[in-house]
Amino acid sequence: MGSLTLKQFQSPLLEPIELYIPAGHCTTLSGPSGSGKSRLLRALADLDPHQGEAWLDEQEMASFSGPAWRREVGLLPAESAWWKDRVGDHFPHVDNALLSLLDLPPNAMQWEISRLSSGERQRLALARLLGNMPQVLLLDEPTANLDQNNIDRVEELIAEWRRQHKTAVLWVSHDPDQQRRVGEESRHIADGRLQVIR
Q1: Tens digits of per-residue pLDDT, 102-114?
Q2: Where do runs of H (alpha helix) occur along the chain?
Q3: Any idea where the domains of the chain sit in the sequence?
Q4: What is the pLDDT of residue 156?
Q5: How many Å apart are CA 49 and CA 41, to the nearest integer?
Q6: pTM for the model
Q7: In what order do the strands lie in the sheet with 59-60?
Q8: SS3 96
Q9: What is the mean pLDDT of residues 30-49?
Q10: Is the pLDDT of residue 35 over 80?
Q11: To bridge 5 with a disulfide, which of 13, 55, 120, 198 should be the other Cys (CB 3.0-4.6 Å)?
Q12: pLDDT beyond 90 at 134
């Protein structure tokens, strides 16, 4: 299980942030394009410059190496990276049940990256991230390229995942209806400040 705590945490474009996401809870994040949402998630994954403190349960980010922190605080970017030709080469462990929940067949591991649709890339990237069993999920518009059936699948999967694994989730979404469905709390970035919606 993992909770996420930010104390005077500051990333580019944003004023210092105070935020607590309990284990098993989801906070949604919205804001206009260019307001700093993705950069905040990248900073929380220790990929971009930042100041202040971030804590996973009782452990501060500074006590981890970058790779060790990212194993526990996993980022799903809006555009996933694929550096080998075949899907399966990106998966050290394959969970066929997880693939099935995302409407992906077991033979998806044999697919060439070049033949994937944007929606398939997005769902496979989520499966890859969850396979690492992070304690915190940083999700940057994880359903942006999906049809409604697959949006429903992803929302249900993440809801069950965080209940089962007590995972804290920070979910970037521009859809107010989705924000209400998936999150206990909502935050909005405006003029460099993190504001409470609910």
Answers
A1: 999 999 999 999 9
A2: 37-44, 66-72, 96-101, 118-131, 148-165, 176-182
A3: 4-196
A4: 97
A5: 11
A6: 0.96
A7: 17-21, 4-10, 51-56, 59-60
A8: helix
A9: 95
A10: yes
A11: 55
A12: yes
